[in-house]
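Appendix B, example 12.
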Amino acid sequence: MRLSKLIAPPAASSDGLALNGPDVDITGITADSRNVKPGFLFAAIPGTKNDGRAFIPEAIKRGAVAVLEPQGTDPSSVTAVTAPDVRKAISLIAAQFYPRQPETIAAVTGTSGKTSTTQFARELWSRLGRRSA
């Protein structure tokens, strides 16, 4: 998907979102430089222990074609999208990139009874006319 489409509204509603560089095709999105594959958008999220900007060179080496970064970040050798709030921007961009999620998701944890519980829930939902996996 073209980067310009990913940062179009509603992602662009993150005030100050700006594209710096050529419009490129994005094949995936990650905030973990170890998971970058060719064609990915890497989100350099500032953290309390580590600053994602320190991992930009590694992400580019692994094939990132664009970086989502905080405003004021030194320019890199790939297309950059700058944002005042990278966390908000990546959530809006990911919502544009990935298909819609189900309206309702249920998880069952525990030591025993998980299979029975999921089967009961599936049966209840199907009787209510709801689709379930």
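The longest helix spans residues 114-127. The radius of gyration is 19 Å.
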